[in-house]
Amino acid sequence: MSTLEIRDLHVSVETKEGPKPILRGVDLTINSGETHAIMGPNGSGKSTLAYSIAGHPKYTITGGTVTLDGEDVLAMTVDERARAGMFLAMQYPVEVPGVSVSNFLRTAKTAIDGEAPALRTWVKDVKGAMENLRMDSSFAERSVNEGFSGGEKKRHEILQMELLKPRIAILDETDSGLDVDALRIVSEGVNRAKESTDVGVLLITHYTRILRYIKPDFVHVFVDGRIAEEGGPELAERLENEGYDRFLTGAATA
Ligand SMILES: Nc1ncnc2c1ncn2[C@@H]1O[C@H](COP(=O)(O)OP(=O)(O)OP(=O)(O)O)[C@@H](O)[C@H]1O
Ligand SMILES: [Mg+2]
After folding, report:
1. Measuring CA to CA, which residue among 224, 150, 204 is closest to residue 182?
2. Where does the record place the ABC transporter domain (predicted)?
């Protein structure tokens, strides 16, 4: 059982004009086995939240705390965060020319577990996970994300998640750009991970369609750098129908 606790998190991003505040007091608690969906307008700071938790150097924490089972996540290096069981599937996965998917996965697994995985079971695990995600085995020998289609990049993110078995996974728009079949396949991958490892999931999305496959326990509306409202799955339906107008008006007059 793990708990990621975000308390009153304030974050600025470095810009040419100096630091620009993006997150303005985020409070969020994610326990093992829970799925939290975050929905909110473009530019509200959702990816900033994901990157800040993962430790991206572009973002400066100006206030608040992030802890995993009481340990100070913000004091950890990016590697330490990964070893502690944090995983981020990025909205725009980066290409790593010259590093094969197979090598990348094995290196990541070794770094996170502190020892190399036993070769025979590992090869079987990778093959099985790729088959489940309907990824052709030839992807194992391709450079990470290089020339991958948008949907292939997202499958590769979930492949990592299934093999690295994080305690807390942040999925930033993993559903964007997926066709209907890929959406189901990727969702099944997340659900497999949930069942087999009890991972806590933070799912950032613009669409309720993924929430039909991955059932959220909580839905948070993210506006102007903080959580503006919280509810259950019904809140996602309401947002899809009504949009964010009522929150934006509130933010403008606040
Ligand atoms: N380097 C930067 N310079 C200036 N502004 C930045 C920089 N990085 C991020 N921002 C701003 O921070 C705000 C939040 O961006 P973020 O990517 O977190 O939004 P988001 O909620 O993930 O949006 P989307 O739904 O479009 O993915 C945006 O207004 C963005 O322009
Ligand atoms: Mg984003």
Report:
1. 150
2. 4-249
In this structure, the dihedral spanned by the alpha carbons of residues 222, 58, 89 and 30, taken in order and rounded to 10 degrees, is: -50
pTM (2 d.p.): 0.94
Mutate to test the pocket of ligand 1, among 20, 53, 247 (most ligand atoms within 8 A of CB): 20
Q: In this structure, what token pair is assigned to residue 56?
A: 């991206």
Cα 246 from Cα 22, distance rounded (Å): 20
* Architecture, CATH, for domain 3-253: 3-Layer(aba) Sandwich (3.40)
- Ligand 1 centroid to 109 CA: how many Å? 31
How many angstroms separate the CA atoms of 127 and 140, rounded?
9
102 lines ligand 1 (CB under 6 A): no
The length of the chain, given as a count of residues = 254
Q: pLDDT tier at 248 (50, 70, 90 boundaries)? A: confident
